[in-house]
Amino acid sequence: MREHAAALAGACTACGACYRACPTVAQVPALADAGAETVMTGIRDLLQDGAGNAAAVTFAAACCRSAQCTGACPEKLDAAFMMRLANLRVRGALGDARVATKDDPGWSARVKAFARLTMTEEEQAKWL
Amino acid sequence: MAVNPDISATFWYGCNMARHGEIVRLATRILAAVGVDAAPAGGPAYCCGSPQEKHARIAAGMAERTVEKFNAAGRDQLITWCPSCHMNMDDFMAPVTEPAFETQHISQLLHARQERLRPLLTQTVTARVLVHAHHGFNGRVPVNKDVPDLLRMIPGVVVVASDMRVPAHMCSSLASIPNGLANAHRATLDAMAAGGADTLVTIFHSCHREAVALEQNHPIRVVNWIHLLAESMGLAYADDYKSWRNAEDPRAAIGPARMDALGEVTYARLLEAELTKKPAA
Fold it and tell me: What's the ipTM?
C-alpha cells in the first residue's frame, strides 16, 4: 500500500482537477472554502506519510469512490485508486488514524443470521 | 431451463447478499440457463477484506485466504456480484495472490450472452423503470449501460432515459457524506418523477436493501435487476427482506417458525435495528 501510495503521490502535480470533478465535494460543508490545489497538496503529503492538512483529511475521509476523478486527471493517473489509498490511510489502515470510524463487531454474525432466514440449511452449508 | 454448461464458475455473491438468498438462487438459475455452471460462494468465509479495510493486515489476510479458496475450487471463472468485492479483487487481492481464474462481473457475462438470454425472457413484465445508477463502478464495468440493455429485452419493460447518477460506487459508501443516502434517494425519486417511472431497479445489493424502504412512503415498486429478469423467465421468488423491512412488525412478518429458529436474542441484537430503520426519504 505504501509503495502504490508513494508512486501515485510522486506523479501527482496537485493541480486539483480531480477535486473539481468530484461530485462529493458539494455535499461536504467542511470543504466549502477549500482550494483544490491546497487540498490535493495535502493528499499528496498524506500519501507520503506526511500530516497533510485538515481539508485533505476531510476530503480523503469523505471519498465514497465515485471515480469521476480518474477521468479528470490530466496526468492520466488512477486518481480513484489514489483517493482510495488516501481514504484508507486517514482511517488508519497503516496505523495512526486521522478520523474516527465505527467498527461493526456484529457484521459477521449479522450476515450469518440473515442467511439463516433466507437460505436453507443445505444452501448455507454449500454457499457460506 | 439449464443447458449444458460451457463455463464452470464460482458465483461470488459477497457477504451482505445473505439478506437476499433468493437473488443468489435466481442469479444461479439465470446463469445456468445461459450455459454457466456457477457455484455460489459468499459470506464472511469468502471475505474480500472490505469490512476490515481500516486494519490493513487483517484485511490482507482475509483476502489472501479467499483467493486461495477460489483457486482450490478449480473453476475457470469468478463471477462477481458486489462492486467492492470486484474492485478489491482487481486492486488488492489478485496482485498479491495469483488467481487461477478469470474474473468478470455478472452483468458483463449476461450482457455477453444476451442472445442466449433473450429467448428465455418470455413473460411480459409491465413496468416503466428507472435504473438506480451510481458513478463509481461504471469506469471498471459498464453496468450503467449493460444492465439497462438487458432490461430492455424484457417484453413490457420501458427503461426511462435519465442522466441521474448517484455519487459513490454503491449506496453503503454514502455513509461518508452527511445526509448522503437521503440526498441520493431524493435525487432518485426526482428522476423517477421526471421520467414517469413506476419501478425503481437497483443494480447492487447495498442499494437494494436501503431502497426497498422507499416503498413505505412513495407509490413505487423497488426491485433488483435480477428480480425483473427472473420474472420475465417465469421464475417465482419472494423478496422476503423487503417484506420484513416494510412491515409494521418485522417479527410477525418473519413468522414464528423462522423466529424460533433464529432466536429472539439474535434478532434483537443483530437484526432489529436494521429492519426497523426508517426510510431515508
Answer: 0.94
Identical fold for domains B7-112 and B121-281, yes or no, is yes
Give the start-to-end residue ranges of the domains of chain B. Answer: 7-112, 121-281
CATH number of B7-112: 3.40.50
Angle at A71 between CA B97 and CA B88, to 5 degrees: 20
CB distance A23–B167 less than 8 Å?
yes
Q: Domain B121-281's class?
A: alpha beta
Domain with A8 in it? 2-103
Question: B241 and chain A: CB distance < 8 Å anywhere?
Answer: yes
Cell triple for A69: 476523478
Contacts with A106 from chain B: Cβ below 8 Å: 269-270
- Rounded CA-CA distance A66/B41 in Å is 27
Tens digit of each residue's pLDDT (9 = 90 or more) over A75-108: 999 999 999 999 999 998 877 888 888 778 899 9
pLDDT digits (tens, 9 = 90+) for B173-220: 999 899 999 999 999 999 999 999 999 999 999 999 999 999 999 999
d(CA A70, CA A65): 10
